[in-house]
Amino acid sequence: MGRHFNHDSTNLAPMLSSKRKGFFFEASEFSYYGATATAFEPPLTVQEFMLLPVSEEQQLRSILEGMSSGKGKRSMIQGNCSIYPDSRFLCRSSIDSKKLRDPEYLSENLKSEFQINPDTNSFRLLSPHLGTEVDLDSNFGRHLLYCGGETEELSSLQETLVDMGIYPRSIEIGTITCLGGLIDYLTWKDISTPVLSVEIQGNFSNIFIVSQKGLLLAKKVNHGINSMIPMLQKELGLDDEGAARKLLFSQTLDFEDIGPRLLRKLMHELQASTGFFEVQTGVSVAMCFTPVLPDGFTWIRDALLESLGVTTLEIDLPGWLDHQGIELSDEVASQVDGNRDFRFFTLLGSYSSEDSNEESN
Question: pLDDT at residue 121 above 60?
């Protein structure tokens, strides 16, 4: 998938740090990523790498302040940024091309089919194959993607970046960047079978099925980390949800037995989604990838694999980066983990916009 959703930053006019090398930054619910590189586009070499939990925001601000070369007046770090808004959405829809003459059709379709208010949300229309914006006057096929988030939250996140000292050259919704990189990875590795990709957040999870052909299924469900808290409280007979939350995030509990019970609702949604896809297409989903998962929750991935009867997609990060024209310094190479950090490095990639034919699924 190509570059997709650049929230307008033309209203920002701070003093920029002069002649900085490339800088990339990601902010999600659970962590911050950062990297400096020799350029903003491949070919490039990643020179420095940073991964911090959101609890270390003050340390992050100190690092960013140290990177700024300006003195006296406020100076900013130019960066390509990736964000994960709570309100983000990615919806795959079948379109009646005859109704496109109605200028309100697509907005009304977003509202009626997905219960998303177009008046309070910013969105783009993307190709499910390439991730590039759709030209409604072209023969783009029967399907398109709605991608966006609440306008107010997107603006707030942009302001937060600026407050941290980052001037966003571009702001992208990380979900799309990651899916674009994942599709590119499957194509490079010549993996023909569809892959289940699951983002697990605090209050929700995003379920996707992708292949070399693009995004084949997208669904958002209201089950995430926080929905496990009252279930854990009940399972262990704890006094309150606060105690359950503390225990859940303590990384001291053995989740081998209790984990699948905490994931029961999410498992049901995953099984329903993959089952529906397999019935509709006749193609099995054999692998799973969990790009967004808080630190210490790898037991969720293990439970998903066992319950769904699939294997994990093991990312060959060095190989894929080489394919992308991205090199890592020796120090950075010693710090990164392929499956954990793949989503961030997709922000550095460059993806083809070659023609693709619409499939029947």
Answer: yes
